User: Which sequence fits this backbone?
């Protein structure tokens, strides 16, 4: 099962491989769109489900720690259950060769924690549209690292696709924002995550190539769930370090968290669902393809991000039977059954 993860080009069934890449790409675009938009609501406005509310929680790095640690715990539990159910796979999260696994997963784990914390920090500073525009520069760094760090042989087609993807992302992002006026520091902060993301993809690919090798006796049968659980454990530790360093001065993040209701905390942690889907799928995609391919696919992400951001930020008539009833209430009508789902946001 894992053979095509490390060498997709020689897969015996290329149609199946293309199907996997297509599914992984679709999941990537949807999940990567949901994470920043939902977390922006947490940082800037608060979230309500109609009964319980989460007040504005302006602690982006603490939010990263809470969400990443929850996902890591869920994946660890899933890996343990899988090992108990089927012991044919030699590799599991509490198995042998942990030092060897950490050597290959450690860099990407630490970088993802840093990236997620800094991304949330930048997202807190500027509108979502501006944030998405600045993130479109990641394709340039990814292609650069693919060539000079991962040693991938990039042809003219790949380079041209990367350049067109970056140009398209920039134009779409430019159209998505009403203004590009922003203070220098927030802009610089939001230009840092694309470079860190490129490092993440580069180190993720190197780790996946090594640990998913079918002839690797130390990690025989290693799953994307185990890989991602270890990665996010390290990421959550990194995010916690950032939170303790930057968000404990006047009003510490854990004090603010304790002031929230239990239902409010659950609403904040709901973002972990999107993180779980995104992280597991990204590991799978990196194993299936290459650094350059993931970078090019990542360049497409601004299209669904822009659409979803426009859907949740604009007033007036919306497509697909979605209408804004009030400035804080979204009424979604099922055309076939006539049933309604109401989602509202708390105002600050």
Assistant:
């Amino acid at each position: 099962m894992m053979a095509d993860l490390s060498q997709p080009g020689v897969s015996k069934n290329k149609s199946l491989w293309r199907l996997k890449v297509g599914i992984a790409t679709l999941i990537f675009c949807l999940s990567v769109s949901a994470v920043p938009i939902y977390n922006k609501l947490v940082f800037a406005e608060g979230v309500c489900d109609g009964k319980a509310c989460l007040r504005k929680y302006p602690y982006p790095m603490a939010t990263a720690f809470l969400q990443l640690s929850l996902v890591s715990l869920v994946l660890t539990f899933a890996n343990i259950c899988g090992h108990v159910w089927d012991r044919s796979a030699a590799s599991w999260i509490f198995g042998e060769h942990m030092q060897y696994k950490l050597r290959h997963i450690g860099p990407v784990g630490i970088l993802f924690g840093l990236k997620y914390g800094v991304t949330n920090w930048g997202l807190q500073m500027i509108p979502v549209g501006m944030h998405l525009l600045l993130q479109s520069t990641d394709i340039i760094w990814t292609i650069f690292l693919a060539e000079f760090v991962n040693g991938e042989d990039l042809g003219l087609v790949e380079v041209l696709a990367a350049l067109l993807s970056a140009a398209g992302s920039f134009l779409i992002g430019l159209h998505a924002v009403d203004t590009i006026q922003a203070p220098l520091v927030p802009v610089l902060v939001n230009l840092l995550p694309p470079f860190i993301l490129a490092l993440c993809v580069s180190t993720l690919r190197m780790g996946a190539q090594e640990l998913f090798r079918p002839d690797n006796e130390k990690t025989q049968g290693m799953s994307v769930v185990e890989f991602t659980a270890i990665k996010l454990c390290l990421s959550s530790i990194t995010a916690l370090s950032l939170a303790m360093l930057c968000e404990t001065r006047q009003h510490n993040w854990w004090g603010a968290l304790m002031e929230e209701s239990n239902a409010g905390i659950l609403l904040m942690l709901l973002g972990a669902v999107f993180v779980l889907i995104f992280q597991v799928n990204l590991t799978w995609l990196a194993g299936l393809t290459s650094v350059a391919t993931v970078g090019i696919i990542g360049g497409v992400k601004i299209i669904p991000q822009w659409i979803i951001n426009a859907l949740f930020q604009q007033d007036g008539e919306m497509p697909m039977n979605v209408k804004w009833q009030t400035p804080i209430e979204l009424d979604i009508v099922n055309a076939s059954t006539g049933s309604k789902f109401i989602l509202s946001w708390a105002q600050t």
